[in-house]
From TrEMBL:
InterPro entries: Acyl_Trfase/lysoPLipase, PNPLA_dom
Protein name (Swiss-Prot/TrEMBL): Patatin
Keyword Lipid metabolism found: yes
Domain of life of the native organism: Eukaryota
GO process terms (BP): lipid catabolic process
Domain writeup: The nitrogen atoms of the two glycine residues in the GGXR motif define the oxyanion hole, and stabilize the oxyanion that forms during the nucleophilic attack by the catalytic serine during substrate cleavage.
Keyword annotations of the record: Hydrolase, Lipid degradation, Lipid metabolism
Function per UniProt: Lipolytic acyl hydrolase (LAH).
Length: 441
């Protein structure tokens, strides 16, 4: 007993050391196996654990998913520093690439995506590009959507110089009139693909997601597209909330800016697909998705300069942009070693903004052109952020090729990658809806 009592702490220290050593070894194995794709039967991976892509593994994964295909998702952020112009400009370039690579001069964005999610200005773009027009195609092409935002930017968005006029004279009604003229009586049911557009409902104090699937499945969830656009872009600091009802008058919403709920709706779009086996029966995980997420520029308010303190709307924008970054990093981590091939983020960093968060440069078209040439900062799995290797334009070019390949694959595939719900041929009295197979889309 005397021998033990002379060194009462020695046994404890040795025990803790062994536990810590075991814990360290366990976590080292887990880290190498799950984070860096290490396999004990193939120890060569340890020599370069930070390399997330192995050629052999990529070939196996590619062969595995060639037969089932991938669900294509487009996500568009809220206004950002450019009031949606950067995203619109990105879509113009994407549509041009798709037309060139597919050989179809009339190809449109909606032809090459299965799901679109947009918030604020992104929601307006989603509606313009995915709502069915008179000829059966979308209401606007990407170029027409860009021109629409440029022409009506000062009327719609908070960062414009017309912000004071809007607060005094309440031009929210003028914005709603603009959307009614653009969309007519079209509703969420009239969209070409699966559409998700968020707002924040003040009556329930919770986010509300306008959804094509919900509009077709349930009574009380179909809304006029003009009201949806007014709701998702309603700036709470300058206009009255949008009071709206569903087409059948069953659901009432008091809506403000979708950016308050989810400025970056990418995660909502991914969740919608992964939990919707009716429309996306073969999608089991992120490896079955290809996602393009479009930002609208991150504002640089000139902090450190006492004369450049953001206004209330500026702080709302800062919060939205911060949330967008968080979603981007989370999604990037969720894709893991598929991040480089299946997930693309287009964003511009450090855009000089006024106190409301808007772009200071007068020629916004020229400014967005410069932004697309940038190599933006992007999230890296468990490594923070780094400068991207490719410019935004180069990433769009490569991604467009992947979209065209998927489109061509579906023309000969017997497996149904996407089975979107379609509107019933007669007026519905229940939540039942028909299904229609998309052979090429």
């Amino acid at each position: 007993m005397a021998a033990v009592s002379e060194f009462p702490m020695l046994t404890c220290i040795d025990s803790n050391y062994e536990v810590d050593k075991l814990t360290y070894e366990i976590f080292s194995i887990l880290e190498n196996k799950f984070l860096f794709n290490y396999d004990q039967s193939n120890p060569k991976h340890i020599s370069n654990p930070t390399k997330l892509h192995n050629n052999d593994n990529d070939m196996v994964k590619s062969a595995k998913h060639d037969n089932t295909g991938k669900v294509r998702i487009l996500s568009i952020d809220g206004g950002g520093a450019t009031d949606g112009i950067l995203a619109a400009k990105s879509l113009v370039h994407l549509e041009s690439c798709l037309r060139r690579k597919s050989g179809n001069p009339n190809a449109c964005i909606a032809d090459f995506f299965d799901v679109v999610a947009g918030s604020g200005a992104g929601g307006i773009l989603a509606a313009l590009l995915f709502t069915r027009g008179r000829g059966g195609g979308p209401v606007f092409t990407a170029d027409e959507a860009l021109n629409f935002l440029v022409k009506n930017r000062r009327k719609i968005f908070r960062s414009s110089k017309a912000g004071l006029f809007r607060r005094i004279f309440g031009s929210g009604k003028a914005v709603q009139k603009l959307f009614r003229k653009t969309f007519g009586d079209c509703t969420m049911k009239d969209t070409l693909k699966s559409v998700l557009i968020p707002c924040y409902d003040l009556s329930s104090r919770a986010p509300f997601l306008f959804s094509r699937a919900d509009a077709l499945e349930m009574d009380g969830y179909d809304f006029k597209m003009s009201d949806v656009c007014a709701a998702t872009s309603a700036d709470p600091t300058s206009v009255e909330p949008v009071q709206m009802r569903s087409v059948d008058q069953r659901t009432r919403i008091v809506a403000v800016d979708g950016g308050i709920a989810m400025n970056n709706p990418t995660a909502a779009a991914i969740t919608h697909v992964l939990n919707n086996k009716q429309e996306f029966p073969l999608c089991k995980g992120v490896e079955d998705l290809v996602v393009m997420s479009l930002g609208n520029g991150e504002s640089s308010f000139g902090f450190g300069n006492e004369t450049c303190s953001p206004s209330a709307s500026g702080f709302v924008r800062i919060a939205g942009e911060g949330t967008s970054d968080l979603v981007d990093q989370s999604v990037s981590m969720a894709f893991g070693d598929f991040r480089m091939t299946n997930y693309v983020r287009i964003q511009a960093n450090g855009v000089m903004a006024n106190k409301n968060g808007g772009l200071e440069k007068i020629d916004i078209m020229e400014a967005t052109k410069d932004m697309l040439a940038q190599k933006n900062v992007e999230s890296v799995l468990f490594q923070g952020k780094k400068i991207a290797q490719s410019s935004n334009l180069e990433k769009i070019e490569v991604f467009s090729g992947d979209l065209v390949k998927e489109q061509e694959r579906r023309k000969t595939s017997v497996l149904r990658t996407v089975v979107l719900k379609q509107m019933s041929p007669s007026p519905r009295t229940s939540s039942a809806s028909t299904l229609s197979t998309l052979s090429s889309n």
